[in-house]
What we know:
The chain is an alpha+beta fold. It has a single domain (3-140), classed as 2-Layer Sandwich (Beta Polymerase, domain 2). The protein has five helices and four strands. Strands 3-2-1-4 form a four-stranded mixed sheet, with helices on both faces. The mean pLDDT is 90.
Amino acid sequence: MNVPALEHIADPTARLMASREEVLAAYLFGSSASGRLRPDSDVDIAVLVDERCFQEDLFDYRLRLSADLRDCLKRPDVEVVILNEVPPVLAHNVISKGKLIFERSRAARIFFQIRALNLFLDTQPMRDYHLKVLKRRYQQE
């Protein structure tokens, strides 16, 4: 995606995130962050939230935020993930390959990144083992 197209998504998204006091940070990830956004691609947005601000379930919050972002960006294909509840591999992917587009609290973002990276590294031996077992089973067939 070229820079104007990235700004067309990032700027309005950042403004919406700034209006939500519970949002600590937001990233674009996937094809919208890597420059491979096509007309049929969806827009992937990852959001780190302050869970102390919630009276509702994060699933319901994600649905409402997705709808608000679709309205804001005038696109039907916006996918939102809440970083507080994603698996370690996805959190690592967002942090390492995504584009930070909004940050309310640098300290909270860095704390999350450190915790997510530690969890990713701690679980890497388990992923390696599972991959090794799958390869062995595949070779036997």
